[in-house]
């Protein structure tokens, strides 16, 4: 079922154009995310040139989603009130034609959030679902891993990703040593990035937020997910060179997200 | 209506004395703030020499406010329970004569928090209201901007700030390229700071917390708001020189908040 | 009542072995902690080689505790829902024989969380209770300090710690210039660390999380608490040498937690 990698499905120039559009339009990105990564997510969006807004209460989420360029729903630390806010935000986004991204953190490993992810996925249409291999396998009906770290290699999850993408008519992005992004027909593989990304909490969560940002400035959700992945992982390549461990890496990553030009992004991109 | 800038309303020596008092007394500052910036706010207070305490539940907020030196109420991510805690904290603060600061994040852009801000402002007396131009305009009856970033220049908001200050007998501080702080009669303009402050989430929120801290060690709310603004923006001047982007800037900002002496603060202050 | 320091109760080699086990087994640590330090805590665990998971809602906490290697319950910002989740996590941990750590942030200074700490301590059996001198004194029946900073010297709290350890058959760790850890019979004193640890929010909270991690890989709770203290404070010694203030210190601390080898830990450890 898995498509062959489409090496030419997206061209480096498209990544550069997407980043250029991001910087020009500074999209307003509503994030309903978790208490662990809210700060890093907002800083990653700001560094990349976006306008983050963490509006995650049930009274404001729906209305704010409708005026946002993109919306992130991340299930890292759901509570009763924020779960309601997530449902409201998805309603608001879909009603206004605003793309939203689902990040089903620890789906498969913990039951309640898994049910929320499946509920949102069953009744609504995210532009992108982003997770590690375990999470994507869990949403596709397989078994999840322990907690938030993927125990299934991203490669093994690609079949599940393609199935999920076709079933829900969305893009599915699987993080791993090689990131894989599919809309069910096309498959983009990106080989940038560094192991230190797994030693900083919220790198994946920030990636989901960047996908929502790019989805707000391009009509192609596959390009949005791929451009966000490229931006974060090419920035990580640079950050790894100037850092001494996970602390300084996270700081350098924000600096790189801010400094990276569209041209440098296209030049350093490693499509696999 | 707008007063002429009073270049001599506050003297650099007063800023130095206020910082000296802050370091001597290490005020206990209760922060009811948002999940995005709670960490950076606490670190900014610690770096500056204060004792932060994020007591933001409805059962403890009132009693703790009464034993604090200053209280911050920041509306970045309100929830049902924390909104109740904010009301309780304001009651506790006012009952004990403890100054409190209102930071109406995204007021005007989102309805519920705007109503909370107006409710607190209508029934109680903050020592300081701190916001960007859009937020201050919204509280004064104008239109807010998109999300948390000011779309109205600080200069345009100064009339609204003066009106708000006179109506509520409080100090109003408007962040911008030039920060403007008024008690309705006097106007202090501070020209320190750096554009990277707008690329780090929580710089403004930390400023509100520092205002609560200074209000706890000086009886003059105008001086408190101005000294906090001076401390943060002079520190930002230094941080910008030793950093490479928003990540390293945020780190250097904390280092500078810790290192800045009262004498250096007075010497580098740019009253405009 | 206070035992004499047992200089030879734990040997440096045991600290090295514990860190080696931590790196080998990468324990899954469930953290129910506060909004201020959740990010730093997760990053400290990741840097040290653990797998953090912040599962702190009432629906998932019990089940997740049962599959974790260790559980942290930190009372920094309790809410109605997270307090329920804490009770559930403790049930889940005890039912599955998983060690859990209690960090009674600001116990004695604020009533509700004090009552939660006493409730958990009265009905259940933490492997470790970790706090500053004021908090430990408060749990033992004395008076707490102002907010989260200890006003009672760690030395003065050691009698209270021994009593608490004997009463509840647990290990009690008191943070201070010299950290003191007792199981009611043995007393370990560790003299590493740096004053900048008190200028970074969440250093103590991260220490509690590291204790839960070590408790998950060693059957000796005294060794777990002592090894976590050694890891954090020896890392702090290194971080202080390469930093310029609290901002860069916190970054370097994460780098050091990642880089520190078992051999270096044993070599730099200062048992007092």
UniProtKB/TrEMBL annotation, chains A, B, C:
Catalyzes the phosphorylation of the hydroxyl group of 4-methyl-5-beta-hydroxyethylthiazole (THZ). Its cofactor is Mg(2+). Substrate binds at residues 54, 202. Keywords: ATP-binding, Kinase, Magnesium, Metal-binding, Nucleotide-binding, Thiamine biosynthesis, Transferase. Its EC number is 2.7.1.50. This is Hydroxyethylthiazole kinase. Transmembrane segments: none annotated. It catalyses: 5-(2-hydroxyethyl)-4-methylthiazole + ATP = 4-methyl-5-(2-phosphooxyethyl)-thiazole + ADP + H(+). Belongs to the Thz kinase family. It comes from Comamonas flocculans. It comes from the Bacteria. The lineage of its organism: Bacteria, Pseudomonadati, Pseudomonadota, Betaproteobacteria, Burkholderiales. GO terms for biological process: thiamine biosynthetic process; thiamine diphosphate biosynthetic process. One of its GO terms (molecular function) is hydroxyethylthiazole kinase activity. Pfam families: HK. SUPFAM superfamilies: Ribokinase-like. It is an enzyme of class 2 (transferase). ATP binds at residues 130, 175. Pathway: Cofactor biosynthesis; thiamine diphosphate biosynthesis; 4-methyl-5-(2-phosphoethyl)-thiazole from 5-(2-hydroxyethyl)-4-methylthiazole: step 1/1.
